[in-house]
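Appendix B. One record, verbatim.
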Amino acid sequence: MSAELTERQAFLVLNALPNIGPITLNRLLEELGGDPREVFTVGTRRLEAVKGVGPAISSTIAAWREHFDLAREEARMAQADTAFITTRDAAYPKLLKEITDPPIGLYRKGSYEFGAPCIAIVGSRRTTLYGQATAKKLGTELGRLGFCVVSGLARGIDTAAHEGALSVGGKTAAVLGCGIDIIYPPENLALYRKIEAEGAILSEFPFGRRADRQSFPMRNRVVAGMCEATVVVETDVNGGAMITARFAGEQGRLIYAVPGRIDQPTSAGCHQLIRDGATLLTSVDDILNELNYLDGLRPQPIPDKPGESGPRAGSLTADEAKVFECFNGGAMLTPDALATQTGLPADRLSATLMLLELKRLIAKRADGAFEART
């Protein structure tokens, strides 16, 4: 039977068979030498010698044609311009391979191959304007800095994060809790298509698989597993983003939580995460400072347009120009000194400094002062 299936087809079939979890699939592959075709040739006795494999699973594998129409799936993939990438492919997210139960394969639409570090931004579907604005700002800043912003295409925080990254030409990936042919929520059709064109859509589920209580946690483990860090913007204590954060913690990844109002239920989960040890996030600097000591985790910012070495003074806002002028002559200034010189209130000054950093015009020193980049 191994001659009837290519290696990729064997991965595709195993990934789609019902009631066989990723832990069992990975254990089967490990014990049978890594070739998925061997799973279909060794016989039920050998299969059942593997921990977690009983008669129900071995019979499902033996009668796989009754459970999965391979030809139909391949036709759907070709029609939808969808690839199936396995853990052996360079395009498979590298960090995701390190978790205890990685998907043995992922359906992918879009050509992005995850060459840059990924940061997840997740949160509630029922969110506030503050949460949406914060998620979009973080997505924008991380996208501009060269990170790939990962989220789940859901309403609310996910949508804002994806839109933020796309707004500056950054990369973003959407991980679905359903088949890759199902667009949920339906109002995100245009966003789905834009992510497909400029980033990547991922799913471990076969075509036609509807989302359910099992598929969303599985999706959340992929989001956390492929990312260096997970940022939770808004969630209640029982929200799906809390599951993503738990997976991130179990996998030893960085967890950040954005604080909110103490009387806002959608911030209760973030406050609980902070109490439990997550890093309180007030700006993208909190992420950069923690990653800064590992050069490999700092991607290249999106380059300026050809012919430009950086933003010109004429491209700055009035506040940016006022602050940037203070650095003439090589001055190194603290935020307090800048506030005195410019007369800008603290919130406007902080936002302006962040934008000048993102435009690569100034840099923050280890002592907290700022200086112009040479």
